[in-house]
Amino acid sequence: MPSTTAAAEKLLLQMVDDYTAREISPYDMSMDAAQDFPEGFIDQLTATGFLGLMLPQEFGGAGFGPEVTATALNHIARGNASTAVTLEGHFKTIDQILKFGTPALQQALLPSANDRIFAFSMTEASGGSNPMGISSTATREGDHWVINGDKIMITNGGLAQVYCVLVKTAPAELSVFVVDQDMPGFSFGKREDFIGLRGTPVGEVVMDHIVVDDDHLLGKLGDGGLIGDSAHDDARVLMGAVLTGIMEHELKIATDYAKERKAGDKQLTELQVTHRKVADIAMRKETTKLLYQRAAQLKAAGQPYSEEAAMAKAHGSRSAVSAGDDALQILAGYGYSREYPVEHLIRDARAMEIAEGTVEKMRSAIANAEFNK
Amino acid sequence: MKIVVCIKQVPETNDVTIDPVTHNLDRRGLAGVMNPFDKNAIELALTLKDSRDDVQVALLTMGPDDYAESLREGMAMGADEGYLLSDRAFAGADTLATGYVIAQALKKIDHADLILFGRQAVDADTGQVGPIVAEFLHQPQITYAASLRLSGANEVTAERLLEDTKQTLVAQLPAVVSVRSELNTPRYPTPRNIQLSFAKSLTVWHHDDLDLDDSRLGQAGSPTIVTKVYAPEPVKRELTPLTGTPSEAASQLIKALKERQLI
Fold first, then answer.
1. Would you tell me which residues 55-74 of chain B have a C-beta closer than 8 angstroms to some C-beta of chain A?
2. Of A209, B2, B97, B127, which sits most exposed with the smallest number of CB within 10 A?
3. What is the C-alpha separation between A79 and A66, in angstroms, rounded?
4. CATH architecture of A118-223
């Protein structure tokens, strides 16, 4: 008999595959065209308990661990990457509240994370990969904090209801506060018209004199940089999983087509030029999978995983773009057509060479980790 | 009231082969999933449970240890407990021998008021086990139910959907009902309920836990011999509905059977 954990994880992935095939994949193309999730899509995802997948059971969640959580997003991304990225943004935010929140803050916030999407807000017009460049502030006024600022390009911005926001509490001090979309002074601004991951809303969050108590501070004053880095690490593990899912989708499209299509009197599967491309896609997919699973294993074991997470995202994002390019070439004219999903998979993957730290920044992080060994 | 849903684990693939010696389905090495039609029966039971405070839903299956996976899935959908009938002595059973063991197990479960089956299993497609269980238990049965409601303290009303006709039937409880997939859309097990399902009771009954006549078990207790597997041509028959009171309908049936020299 398998262990209870292994049996539960198997059942979870079986359910995820079933749900993805029936409720997510059918909308992959229309989501890209409509630049949104279909009506009722997020409500059904929520009602089926996906938001609480990795939330500990004491807060009403399912309490699945980092490895199977990442694998679940991998499987969802086979059907649609936007859905997986929306969950990734939610899970990485929950992770920070679990790591840095006081028991009181966790108790106040986390039970609602089964029904409400949480988002992490760092980027501003003046600073993204350079967090000290941000200009949002939390200023002490009497017993309260007053938050002002303008966050842009926030994953799930406009969809999420709870936001962890990075602000300056002193000229050289970064801190994170938790705010709610229902608070006076909170509003949504422009939604980005991005070329990929078009189902996931990415938008602006405006904070105009939002008043909060000390209990809305996540971690301690000055922990902002640490919490931001941690959020990036958790996001990058899951992005490796999403990118693996995109490559599995690309590989399936390429192999299905090659098995059906002839070039002259030969099947595409008989041509060495096809072999080279399919093998490259498969190797890129498999190496990214190993990288994200390794990072997730380290995270589950309580060991450092920052470097491995950066590798999963940096390697995975370029790999998925290249794999999509190879798949497009196998499908030739059909691959270049919007009637087939390959072109939007390339656009989806391209987002992850930028989001959660550029691949250039990933390489610096990896190199610095190696220099410090 | 207690509802027991009888489920089956079937091969995941549609690419099932036939054993050239026994002519039975060769299930060796195939991953198993719950028979899709059985999920409609579970959904019906859970809908009834959602509508009343006094409904308990149990699941029952017969097969090797790994059939527990389908019981867990059903418990993750919301069923309260599971029963696995597992013993080498049960292996190789046809529908009659399977129905016998299931019926003996159901006798051991207290107050099994309503026993539900999916329409049929997608591997062998017989749809026979539900009716066989009803006969062993001497209980009324309704097959191919496309809707079902509890219409009184001790009765169910079901709409039976056949190829050319619909029938509305009322049965006194306890009763056996097999349901069609048109009945409902089965719910997904939520991630949290998947975890919680492992805290629910799963009882395994072996040969010695049940009151069984060994001559009725397994291959030895199976009168069916599969000689050939093929898809029959559909046959269109004229239907003659039986009308009136149950006793008048029975008289008409006997008359019709006599006319055709069947009895």
1. 65, 68-69, 72-73
2. A209
3. 21
4. Beta Barrel (2.40)
Distance, CA of B47 to chain centre: 18
pLDDT for B15-32, tens place per residue? 666 676 666 666 666 778
Long-range contacts formed by A43-47: CB under 8 A, 24+ apart: A45/A83, A46/A114, A46/A115
**What is the pTM for the complete model shown?**
0.90
CA separation for the pair A302, A295 (Å, rounded): 11
Q: What is the pLDDT of residues B98-130, one digit of tens each?
A: 999 999 999 999 889 999 999 888 777 788 888
| DSSP type of residue B234 | P
ipTM of the complex: 0.94
| Beta-carbon contacts of residue B37 (< 8 Å; ≥ 6 apart) | B118, B119, B120, B121, B122, B179, B181
The count of structural domains within chain B is: 1
Q: Which of A88, A308, A353, A356 is catalytic?
A: A356
The CATH H-level (homologous superfamily) assignment of domain A226-371 is: Butyryl-CoA Dehydrogenase, subunit A, domain 3 (1.20.140.10)
CA distance to A154, A198, A324, B47, B179, per residue, from A193 (Å): 12, 8, 22, 43, 48
A223: three-class secondary structure by DSSP: coil
Tokens of A1: 């008999």
Task: Answer yes or no: A260 catalytic.
Answer: no
Residue A166 phi/psi, 5-degree rounding, is: -85, 125
Closest alpha carbon to A71 in A349, A350, A288: A288
pLDDT in tens, A307-337: 999 999 999 999 999 999 999 999 999 999 9
Task: Print burial letters for A34-58: b (CB count within 10 Å at least 16), e (below 16).
Answer: ebbbeeebbeebeebbbbbbbbeee
CA dihedral B184, A31, A199, A210 (to 10 degrees): -80
User: How big is the A-B interface in CB pairs under 8 Å?
Assistant: 53
The C-alpha atoms of residue A62 and residue A56 are separated, in whole angstroms, by 6
